[in-house]
Amino acid sequence: MSPTNRVISSSSDKYQVLNDGTLVVYKAQRFDGGNYTCTARNNAGQDHRVIRVEVLVTPPVINGFRGTTNTIRVTAIRDQRKMVDCAAKGIPTPRVMWVLPGNIILPAPYYSSRMTVHSNGTLDIRSPKRTDTGQLACIARNEGGEAKLMINLDVKEVVERLTWTLPSGVILSRPQRAGRYTVLSNGTLAIQQASVYDRGSYVCRAGNEYGSSLLSVPVVVIAYPPRITNGPPSVTYAKRGVAVQLNCIAAGIPRAEPRLFGNKYLHPQGALIIQNPTQRDAGYYRCTARNAIGVDSKHSTTVHVKRPLL
Q1: What residues contact 122, with CB distance under 8 A and at least 6 apart?
Q2: pLDDT of 258-278, one tens digit each?
Q3: Structural domain includes residue 4
Q4: How many structural domains does the chain have?
Q5: Is 1 helix (H, G, I), strand (E, B) or coil?
Q6: Distance CA 293, CA 199 (A)
Q7: Can you say how many angstroms the Cα of residue 277 is from the centroid of all Cα atoms in its chain?
Q8: pTM for this one?
Q9: 66 and 48 part of one domain
Q10: Which residue intervals define the domain Ig-like in the entry (predicted)?
Q11: Which domain holds residue 20?
């Protein structure tokens, strides 16, 4: 017999009577508590026993806070993912839902492109907006009662300050262009036509209302004076009207640009080509390599122009 004096004689969705007389109560709830009476009969008589069943119920508790209603303040940064916990405990396991401004109800679990309520009750805001500022509520319910956590959400706009301090001590902020230096909108510092004078430590400073951070970037400008590695012989013989090449290969950073002199062409690698030699091209030639670091002019040659044989 159930606590409501109903005969439990066969199995159902709620009860099951086993062959040995054991009674199974499925998904016990608060109203299943009470006195259950077991009666046994045969030709000689009958016997019965009353068993008291108490269904334990614990009211919900959210994030360990005591009391049915608690309020906290939560700050989020615009467009930066924010997760707000709502860990509800109780017996039986509480059902959790979130109530957003405008009386929008999100059960757990809930999934959308911008907001998710995980099965553990956590509210996941992927890209907070200023319009999300307001009061939210996480509500947990079971048979023992209801608990509510009120969240005052404040979505803030972070004002970032990014600056570069050059080795000379000059400070540049973004976005800005000063001579050969440009600070892009994303904070990148670009240096045009770098020279040895640009070497040193560059300091990037980022700060907002919550603090600041520094990054020092040492810059080494690779440069070395020119060095002639392949020069012409001391004497060069050329035939009139036949092009002749005077080698002058130099290594160095930065490199010199090629130049064209009349019928003489300076190859990008440094060789001097006389396209149509005449007696006027005869004489002394010196190979000179020069850049911003220094100069090398150790190699020279004397050009003799021969007349063609008849």
Answers
A1: 83, 84, 85, 86, 87
A2: 554 556 777 777 788 888 898
A3: no
A4: 4
A5: coil
A6: 14
A7: 65
A8: 0.50
A9: no
A10: 59-152, 162-220, 226-304
A11: 15-53
